[in-house]
Amino acid sequence: MRFIPTRIHGYLDYAGGLLLILAPWLFGFADGGPETWVPVTLGIGALGYSLFTDYELGMVRVLSMATHNMLDIASGVVLAASPWVLGFADEVWVPHVIFGLLEIGAGLMTRTTPEGLRSR
Questions:
Q1: CA-to-CA distance for 118 and 66, rounded, in angstroms?
Q2: CA 41 to chain centre
Q3: Do 63 and 6 meet the contact criterion of CB atoms below 8 Å apart?
Q4: What is the pLDDT of residues 73-84, one digit of tens each?
Q5: Which letter does DSSP use for residue 64 in this model?
Q6: What SS3 state is found at 86?
C-alpha cells in the first residue's frame, strides 16, 4: 500500500539525511566509531541519491523512484542491523533501529510515480 506522495518523501529525504548526519551529536553517541559513522555515511548517501532521483525535489533526475525506494529499504536494513553486525549494541542501538525502521517504512509506502513529472 503506497500512499506517501513522492513530494512528501522528498522533503523527508533531505530532512532525514541531515538528521542522520547530525544524530550522533544530537543524541550523544558521537564516540568516533561505527556507531557514529554508519548514520553519517548513510545520511550523506541518502542526500546524494535524493539529488539524482526522478521526483519533484531531484536536481539531476536519472534515478527512478522505484530504485530510490529500494535504496531506502537497503539503507534502513543496514542502519537497523549495524549495532549488532558491527558490535556496538552494548553502547547504543535505539536510534539506529528507529531511523532504520522509518527508512524501511518510507521505502515501502512511497508511490513510485511522481505527480506531474514524466517517470523514467
A1: 14
A2: 10
A3: no
A4: 999 999 999 999
A5: -
A6: coil
